[in-house]
Amino acid sequence: MAAAHVLVFPCPVHGHITCMLHFANGLLAAGLHVTFLHSDHNLRTAAGSGAQLATVASPPRLRYVSIPDGLPVDHPRDVGRIVELMESLRTKGSAAYRSLLAKLVRPGDAGGDFPPVTCVVADGIMSFAVDVAEELGVPALAFRTDSACSVQAYLSLPRLLELGELPFKDGDGLDEPVRGVPGMESFLRRRDLPSQCRVCTDPENDPLLQIVYDFTVHNGNARALVLNTAASMERAALAHIAPCMRDVFAIGPLHAMSPAPAAAAGSLWREDDGCLAWLDGQADRSVVYVSLRSLTVISLKQFTEFLSGLVAAGYPFLWVLRPDMVGASQNAAVQEAVKAAGNNKACVVEWVPQRDVLHHRAVGCSLTHAGWNSTQEAAVEGVPMVCWPFFTDQQINSRFVGAVWRTGLDMKDVCDKAVVEKMVREAMESAEIRASAQALAQQVRQDVAVGGGVRAACGVHQGAQHDGGQNGGCGDGMNSEFRNCSVNSLFCVCVCVCVFSSPFGFESIIC
What we know:
6-stranded parallel beta sheet, Glycosyltransferase, alpha/beta, UDP_glucos_trans, Rossmann fold, globular, 511 residues, quercetin 7-O-glucosyltransferase activity
């Protein structure tokens, strides 16, 4: 059998890159060759910031390559224009991707000691990457870096429209219950749906909603869908997703299976580990860790409310403040405001090794945007959360934290000093929340130690027919089964399913 060589292609956004690099490290551990595809812009950014991505040598069977994303060099590529980035990749970057992949699949042209590419694992929000690979004869998997519950919500959009729950009607509050997402009827509210649902006024002419629905349904065209999640966190959502896909693998949390240096190697910015020494000087479980990560932006007023609430709560806090995070304010002035208000009880940095911070004995809770990477990292460490979601899947993630796992508090749609103070204190002091967080951590760690992942088989056979989401929810998922797999065998199976699948359905591969 020829050596397996996987091209891993994440959306060129920080959280997607770090998550899929953990996946790449799993492939390396299983003995595979990996080519990791960046955008030219991100490699320039990493080099300019001195990030480890640009300064640390990669392992022998891992290499980084890049293609242009199609945008001008001076384009901000910020959260407000992310749709422009996605569209440019699809219309312009796809040509460079096709040319690169066509070269990498030819014997002798893969470069160095690398065999030809035998499989592509593409970000599930970039449908073109799967299509191009299959057109070139390369089997492709779709990889979603967001939560299974959000994927299920996107697949449920036709049902929500059918029930009249979208678009939201004038006069109806955001706390109105939502019945159109199977299995979530008892706790899901309008405010908990992915953020694209809030701005929907005309479903027939809503490009953003159509984009997220289309790429989610398209995941069913890939040989399999891979999700960075754990069965102990999202078993029900996985069961509902499975009938929509040709096959499903839940293989997370990936960061818990990846060595710590690998996490730093995926960062586009230099991590300031000096904050760890500051944490060393704090008492156990006494520090509030505040990070809204790589894309969230807040106004100066919101910043002031957060700061006032944190100070009033009375606990030391470590706050990650990116230079571009607080509107158009000067970052140095913002950082000085934090230090002055914190009265020597605050540490402010631009970026941190989050995994190390959450693992530190001094951290008592995390005030987070509830991005899926951050949610899982806190879950593995048993750290209670206060969730202030910003957009996309973060809205539904935060509801699961507060109402399903009960490992924290959902503070969405509120940015008020009094509420920040109250919720931070409750997260730091509630024995019930901490016990739930520790219990979930134990379950997730057991997933990692014993199984490392879950395979969701649609129906009774891996090649079961699916309807691609056209029926608004893809069935009830009650016929789906889950099998635990070891970490290495799971990574191998993910590739073997692609390499050895026949036109008539997947081979029966037992972990």
